[in-house]
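We keep the chain:
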Amino acid sequence: MPSDLERAMEMLITVFHRYASKEGGSASLNRRELKMLMEAELGTFLKSQKDPATVDRIMRDLDSNGDGEVNFEEFVSLVVGLSIACEQIYRLHMQSKGVKKQ
């Protein structure tokens, strides 16, 4: 039976390829696919962004090799960055509740 972390990794891969296969190949996300993924899977994050060019900016930031698409490695950097930010908020929340660090 897979662990929670193994299931999380499997889900990350599955979600990426679900959207990457919408148009053309399944090895990368084009701008439209990235936008669909973010609207469906990161809707709360996207709604909190006031800049209508958020997806374009994220696409430019993620596309480290400049090919106009986001491959899985580039996509994971988005997930890592958001996870780090969420973990920092989690720690602040726990501190405000008086929960001590372990």
The radius of gyration is 16 Å. The mean pLDDT is 88. The beta strands are 28-29, 70-71. The chain has five helices and two strands.
